[in-house]
Amino acid sequence: MPKKYADYFQDTILTIPDSFVNVKTGETKAITSKIVEQVAYHAKNNTLNHLVFSALHDYLHHPKPVQVNRQSEHVILEELVELKRLLLQHGNDSSKSLNEYTIKSPREQNQASVGMKEIDDLLEAFGG
Fold first, then answer.
1. pTM assigned to the model
2. 16, 30 in Cβ contact below 8 A?
3. Rounded Cα gap, residues 109 and 88, in angstroms
4. pLDDT (tens digit, 9 = 90+) per residue, 20-58?
5. In this structure, what DSSP letter does residue 62 have?
6. DSSP letters for 10-58
């Protein structure tokens, strides 16, 4: 059953349903307890308008998280391979630990997927 929260100071009333439709993706999402807690808190403190407009501002003005596609994954891997080559050519002190990592270029991988763990391990070996 939907519950109404009111900020009488700002003349704002918000009814919380069981779910909502994300207007960017079209997906139906359940209302979480965290959402209910925040709405109740801001209604009690007469800041419900601020919550709504803060959420709208973040929703509309923050960039979407970067989605890594297959092509950009290959570009990243190529750059990592080149970094390894440069470090090994210049006799980096950590080159001994780098030799235990076998990195293949995307052409050598035959479409094998590179996991984030392998990239994390590689970056850790480079001191990043």
1. 0.45
2. no
3. 21
4. 998 888 899 999 999 999 999 998 888 888 998 898 888
5. S
6. TTEEEEE-SEEE-TTT--EEEPPHHHHHHHHHHHHTT-HHHHHHHHHHH
